[in-house]
UniProtKB/TrEMBL annotation:
The keyword Ribonucleoprotein does not apply. PANTHER family: LEUCINE-RICH REPEAT RECEPTOR-LIKE PROTEIN KINASE PXC1 (PTHR48007), POLLEN RECEPTOR-LIKE KINASE 1 (PTHR48007:SF64). This is non-specific serine/threonine protein kinase. Keywords: ATP-binding, Glycoprotein, Kinase, Leucine-rich repeat, Membrane, Nucleotide-binding, Phosphoprotein, Receptor, Repeat, Signal, Transferase, Transmembrane, Transmembrane helix. GO terms for cellular component: membrane.
Amino acid sequence: MVLLFIVVLHFVTCSCKSDAKILLKLKESIRDSGALSSWKDSKPPCNGDIENWVGILCANGTVCGVKLENMGLGGVIDVDVLKELTNLRTLSLMNNKFDGSLPNITQLFALKSIYFSGNQFSGVIPIYIFDGMLSLKKIHLARNKFSGEIPQSLITLPRLSELMLQDNEFDGEIPQFQNGMLKLFNVSENEMTGEIPRSLGHMNVSSFSGNKDLCGAPLESCAPAKLSIGTIIIVVILVALAVAALIAVVIILSRRKQMPEQERATVSPPGRRKAFSTDLDKMEQGTASTEKSQNGKKGVNNIKLTFLQDGREKFNMGDLLKASAQILGSGIFGSTYKAALNAGQAMVVKRFRHMNNVENEEFYEHMRRLGRVNHQNVLPIVAFYYRKEEKLLVYDFMENISLAVHLHGNTTRGRPCPDWPTRLNIIKGVSKGLSYLYNELPSLMAPHGHLKSSNILLDRSYNPMLADYGLIPVVNQDRAQEHMIAYKSPEYKNNGRITKKTDVWSLGMLILETMTGRFPSSFFQQGSKGNETDLVSWVEFMVKEGNADVDQVFDKNMGRKDKSKGEMTKLLQIGLNCCEEEVDKRWDLKEAVERIEQVKEKDNDQEYNSRGLSK
Ligand SMILES: *[C@@H]1O[C@H](CO)[C@@H](O)[C@H](O)[C@H]1NC(C)=O
Ligand SMILES: *[C@@H]1O[C@H](CO)[C@@H](O)[C@H](O)[C@H]1NC(C)=O
Ligand SMILES: *[C@@H]1O[C@H](CO)[C@@H](O)[C@H](O)[C@H]1NC(C)=O
Ligand SMILES: *[C@@H]1O[C@H](CO)[C@@H](O)[C@H](O)[C@H]1NC(C)=O
């Protein structure tokens, strides 16, 4: 009987005891822990919601917060120990003497707030440290000695509302936080440079003061303002010198073998002007050596395009280059330019490097195959140019550029954000185009293979056109595996293979991106690390039944929620189903397309239609 009592007693006190053990272990790693004298095994740290130990927050008898403020503590915070406190939501170390790099909080998944301001922490914050910290709301790191860039991964935290980084040594540019995401933000007294993101334009000036070179609202605008004539003359002279130097460099480089150029995977907004004839002159050197002897002519006009569409007016590179070209974006495979023909018709030229997976003959054959596509949601390749080092693909220009530009681009350029009916129409068009590609290119495992918002082009009326499809067979394998969307899929990560359902996964990611306005974080990171389930698990969490925050999941710029919320949520669910990690459980394309077709613009459309039908 007594034995049983002891056993029961042991179990009753067990969970408190383990909290006590954990905290005492933590205390061992802390220097100058005099202030923690009440941390003793004699009493449990928590008694219901009341704390027996100093600096502890309790709820239901367990530790939910560790709040060690102004205690003169130092040393290292042992995160491996802390992670055993499974209910830990708040961690505050404000105003102590902790030093070294930021504690590796990655493992403390449930944390909502970290207050580390006023310590001696230093060094660069690793980008992965906020991976999967989906609950994190408040990050206070002010008055430390952190340096390097503010981690980009912060913009993927769905609930972040306070970010205090003032009085550190951060440099680089401020990450592009989403509109309305942050309530409190401070980067003053750092070494930040560049333009302040538009989404932070409404913040208090004092949040940005004391930096190296920040501009844009709420500070002064970045455009050079109020220059005196003297300054202008000096600037003009400097620019002229720079241009002369640049031309010299281009000439020198073009005499040498063509240098590999560093490439970036960005969605850069259009608008920057750049004459790409210099680029093409450069590349033309390669052909010149072989072709010059035959026809004696020199210049980009020599570049022969192979046309894939019958009945199209033929033109050559020279025709495209008469007007200056505009750079639309640069990606991992090369840049994209807009160029105008004589008649004023605009064309898009995409440069591709790393496309030598197949021999010349086979490449031509594959291009002819792609050239045969004919569907209202698939953008045909008009012509192409082949050279060993680099290929050019020529498309018709689409008035509204790409979906990516509208979802993530800079809204200053007056581009309206597509509303819900437009987004639904885009997703429906994309799924139809994809379905067509599956029928047309049945031999390809992933008939699209690189489905992402920057490859969804939008025409004048926002109808979507798929681009960059069917390229996996011709792109160099290592490049493809490193950068193409199909290779970011869970099946490739887990089993090293892509399947017939891989494009369905990409479609799912695209749906989530379109509905939430959030860029899947993994696409930022080069290479195959990263965790693309971030967006998926966040959406899953948000649409879970009973989550009062469900409205937060939708992109604020989409507008109009009340009458359409049901259908909008339905589309999100479809997106989630397409993102199902287990390929066997994931829908095939046919099923996905059918489900998407059933989504209506308004919640009561369905009812209305069925009434209409039954009449
Ligand atoms: C404490 O327990 C009660 C009852 O089990 C529960 O309703 C409440 O949410 C818990 N509070 C916390 C902070 O876990
Ligand atoms: C930080 O924690 C994560 C998750 O446990 C782990 O993967 C990573 O290696 C840790 N990093 C360091 C520098 O200890
Ligand atoms: C900006 O912040 C400072 C100090 O935090 C405050 O005194 C000032 O009133 C704020 N200004 C505005 C426009 O909110
Ligand atoms: C930002 O931090 C600076 C420096 O600590 C402070 O003076 C300013 O009032 C802060 N502004 C806001 C809005 O928090």
